[in-house]
Amino acid sequence: MAPALRAAALARPAPPCYPAPMAPDLAPGPDRHHGADPAPATHIADPAPDTRPAADLPLLSVVIPMRNEGPNVLPLVTEIAAALDGTPYEVVCVDDGSSDDTGERLLEAASRFPVVALRHARSCGQSAAVISGVLAARAPWIATLDGDGQNDPADIPRLWSRARAEAAAGPVLVAGHRVTRKDSGVKRVTSRIANAIRARLLGDATPDTGCGLKVFPRAMFLDLPRFDHMHRYLPALTLRLGGRVVSEPVNHRPRTRGASNYGTLDRLAVSIYDLLGVIWLKRRWKRPVAERLLPRG
Which end of the chain is more exposed for a tag (fewer CB within 10 A), N or C? Predict the structure, then answer.
């Protein structure tokens, strides 16, 4: 299906997200997987089924949550196209209830690039947008990055290559590590403290869990429990599932367009509850090892 036709779904109104802090679930059919029992959620319109031959499907889906990032849409998608030139890919952009021209810019991008555009009727949060994007993705591998342009798309091929090399040993998440951050002093300090606390309490062994640039198998993500703010705990949730986490240094750039839409204070306000919830999830789950019984003789 042509990118512009798939993006036309953006023009259709979608029902609002369920007001509880629960990510929406886009896949009510056989493609839905659950790690934990979900709270009730309102379904956003399912993406149209893909009728393309398997050979025409993308190998990598780049999922980008966006909220009021209109000025960043075309520059970011253009950079992704350059970084993945020669690779069968798609970009799944989720407009998380923007009040600016993000939707219009996504439609423009979809007319020029392999972009799938989705929209939340109102802002449901960054994790909800990531989940919506992964559920709509058609590739076996997912790369996520923030919509503010601070993550460098040029790093995606290297992280994807590392992920595929590591996949021989089992499910893996490759997390970007912003060695030299280009954020405000407040963001850097709060992030450093949060990472230290998470590493101490969750044992996720990840120096920068807040980096939006990550690569992982789509199937693995769909087996993770879904909840608001889960994107900050993907390393711990991957380890809980029995997967592995490796970190790769990545470039980080200053924001040159727009303003931050998912604030530092918002993160701090819910971090304690989230952390306790993930600790509970880890302690309440035992990974079974099932062996198939075969008849004797």
Answer: C
Per-residue pLDDT tens for 25-83? 333 333 333 333 333 333 444 455 556 566 689 999 999 999 999 999 999 999 999 99
**Residue labelled with tokens 């960054």:** 126
Domain assignment present for residue 33? The answer is no
Parent domain of 209: 57-256
Which residue intervals of 172-225 are DSSP H helices? 185-202, 218-222
Number of H helices, E strands in the chain: 9, 7
H helix runs in the chain, sequence order: 3-7, 70-83, 102-110, 126-136, 156-166, 185-202, 218-222, 234-241, 264-283
Q: What is the pTM of this model?
A: 0.78
pLDDT at 54: 67
Is 16 within the bounds of a domain?
no
Amino acid at 129: A
- How far is it, in rounded angstroms, from Cα 36 to Cα 54? 31
CATH at 122:
3.90.550.10
